[in-house]
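Give me the fold.
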Amino acid sequence: MPLDAVSRLILTLLGIGFLVANLRILAQFCQFRRLRQSALLTWPGRRPPFYLMLLALGAILGALVIVKIGIQRRPPVDAFGETMMCLYYGYALPTSLRIGRGFYAGGIWADSGFVPYATIGGLRWREGGRPTLVLIDPVRQLARTLVVPEAHYAEARRLLRDRIAAHEIQFSGKELDLGAHDRRDDV
């Protein structure tokens, strides 16, 4: 297989992967737009390490797409992989940071997506450094995290206690650690 064909195949596969990532972020942003009216306590997403470098990568990929399609007059399908990566680094990633992490009337927006209260089977705080809330989903056998800014830590704990008292969060025997002992912690 010639090197050109291999590189096209790799870029197409990368493009498919980035297309899936772009669609996932688009779906999350649409969900956020529907939920933002019910926000109780939110904050913007944290920028990833090397954020400016990722934006620069998006700009470079955009320039590459312009060169391939506009200057070299290649068919748009030849720039599919680069276009999807440009969209991810230049638009989808910055858009995902606009999604308010935190507490909503129907659930918690963790660092990796929205978790309805009804699917939370356990909670745990990790307090070494930045306070991090770990949400346990016993049905899907996964845990999601939410890094809580220090300024919102006390309010986040209060909101969790209120949701537990209202029986919106049902525990499935997983460990619960919200700090000082409270009878609601014995659920």
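The mean pLDDT is 88.
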